[in-house]
UniProtKB/TrEMBL annotation:
Stretches assigned to the Peptidase M14 domain: 30-306
Protein name as it appears in the record: M14 family metallocarboxypeptidase
Required co-factors: Zn(2+)
Keyword Transit peptide (UniProt): no
Similarity field: Belongs to the peptidase M14 family.
Species name: Stenotrophomonas nematodicola
Keywords assigned by UniProt, alphabetized: Hydrolase, Metal-binding, Zinc
Length: 306
């Protein structure tokens, strides 16, 4: 794993101002296409699902329509599940895992549960393989107070306006080596704090909401995913990313109070999934498959509890 380093923007110990944020933003270059990778995939799904534009990001000169997919023949008497991906745009399998679930698995749940899938919440970050939005704000700390940035606000307001009662919310993420050598150093530089390097777990794990962790639900996801890819072991302190291990591959962390996407709904069964795409023991396709396995296991568990 890559060693953390001092971030080259800003002055150590001093939070960024407008000039530093502008310098950081200017350094972010488009590396892939949201339209080609996500919008085109949604267009292909349009005959099988309802594709809804729930908002738009306007970061001149770039403009990004925000899309969600819902099942046809919506049945208000059924429970509803929300799947979100790409809240952190650089976490690739969250986006492609959500799209793969739609293409290969979603129709099998017809007549049992309604589905809402927002596969790429942060398309600016997706294109630049970046954690933040253009203002150096973390979308996964912004799902509170009605939404602190447009990526969060648009989705939150649309979901609230729909008025669905959610049973399940699965938010699909990755933990990567770039967290250690790029994003954590950038965050500490931005906030004027000292970097304390963390250990990146090698494998899949989930973060349950500590306010209502639903441990049996979290364990069901791990049991399904370990048939697809390896589960992250605890570190020498019995922790994953600084949180105590509750059971194999399961930690509990704050969601609602910190503005994480997985905490903005009242879904009884909610979690944040995490895969490690930089492991020599996995592949990009295996990471996508792990995300899909987690989604299916979450839906199956929730349906069995009704």
């Amino acid at each position: 794993m890559t060693t953390a380093h001092f971030y080259p923007i800003g002055t150590p110990g001093q939070p960024w101002g407008d000039a530093e944020r502008a310098q950081w933003r200017a350094a972010q270059q488009r590396q892939r296409s949201y339209h080609d990778d996500v919008v085109a995939a949604l267009e292909r799904l349009g005959e099988r699902f309802e594709v809804v534009q729930y908002g738009q990001l306007d970061y001149a000169p770039d403009h990004y329509p925000l899309f969600a997919v819902v099942n046809q023949d919506w049945d208000a008497t059924l429970p509803t599940a929300l799947v979100t991906g790409g809240v952190h745009g650089y976490e690739t399998s969250g986006v492609h895992g959500a799209l793969q679930f739609l293409d290969e698995n979603a129709e099998a749940y017809a007549g049992r549960i309604n589905l809402i899938v927002a596969p790429c919440v942060s398309p600016w970050g997706y294109e630049r393989i970046q954690r933040w939005n253009p203002d150096a704000i973390d979308p996964n700390r912004s799902f509170r107070g009605g939404g602190l940035i447009e990526e969060a606000r648009a989705l939150m307001q649309w979901v609230v306006t729909r008025g669905d009662t959610l049973l399940v919310h699965l938010d699909l993420h990755e933990t990567t080596d770039s967290d250690l050598h790029e994003f954590d150093p950038a965050r500490c530089a931005r906030d004027g704090k000292v970097l304390v390097p963390d250990i990146i777990p090698d494998g899949f794990y989930v973060i349950g909401n500590s306010e209502d962790p639903q441990p049996a639900f979290q364990r069901a996801l791990i049991a399904a995913v370990e048939k697809v890819t390896h589960i992250a072991p605890a570190d020498a302190n019995g922790e994953l990313i600084g949180m105590p291990l509750q059971s194999k591959g399961v930690v509990w962390g704050e969601s609602r109070s910190i503005g994480a996407c997985a905490g903005f709904t009242d879904a009884r069964f909610a979690t944040t999934t995490e895969v490690y795409p930089d492991s020599p023991r996995t592949t990009p396709q295996e990471c996508n498959d792990a995300q899909v396995a987690a989604v299916c296991a979450g839906l199956d568990f929730a349906l069995a509890q009704r």
